TrEMBL record:
This is Uncharacterized protein.
Length: 147
């Protein structure tokens, strides 16, 4: 790809050295858009267009407990097949909210607030932060001298 040899195979297509396998694995894991580049080498543009038309990207944003795995798999599949970067800010915002909750339970309020603030910057409309916003408003009302 782009002048870099990905792997070397025998004429029979059998053995691949451990070094080549590791290099290929690194390419597939860490090169943004690597999977579509490989698909383009293995299929013609009409074949790729037909494949992508037959299997459109799942645009679900349902991160509820029952659907989170399907949503994440759909987003990863879309990224792998098209090379488009997917935004996972909703999920990451929720993760920062949960991390903040855990930090607060450990009496680490400064780091909890930093985590919540990071999550709110990523996903300002995420309903998970309603409790945090209310908690913050209550603290401000009761203790304005600290804000």
């Amino acid at each position: 790809m782009d002048g870099i040899r990905l792997a070397a195979c025998s004429a029979a297509g059998a053995k691949v050295s451990a070094t080549d396998a590791a290099q290929f694995t690194r390419f597939m894991r860490y090169v943004p858009g690597g999977h579509p580049q490989l698909l383009e080498r293995l299929a013609t543009p009409p074949q790729l267009d037909a494949l992508r038309a037959e299997h459109p990207c799942d645009a679900s944003e349902d991160f509820s407990d029952a659907q989170i795995l399907d949503t994440m798999l759909g987003k990863m599949e879309c990224m792998l097949s098209t090379g488009r970067q997917v935004t996972l800010t909703t999920m990451l915002g929720g993760a920062y909210k949960d991390l903040g909750d855990l930090l607060l339970m450990q009496y680490d309020s400064a780091r909890a607030w930093r985590s919540w603030d990071a999550g709110r910057r990523m996903s300002p409309a995420l309903p998970n932060f309603e409790a945090v916003n209310k908690f913050e408003a209550d603290l401000l009302a009761k203790n304005p001298q600290f804000f």
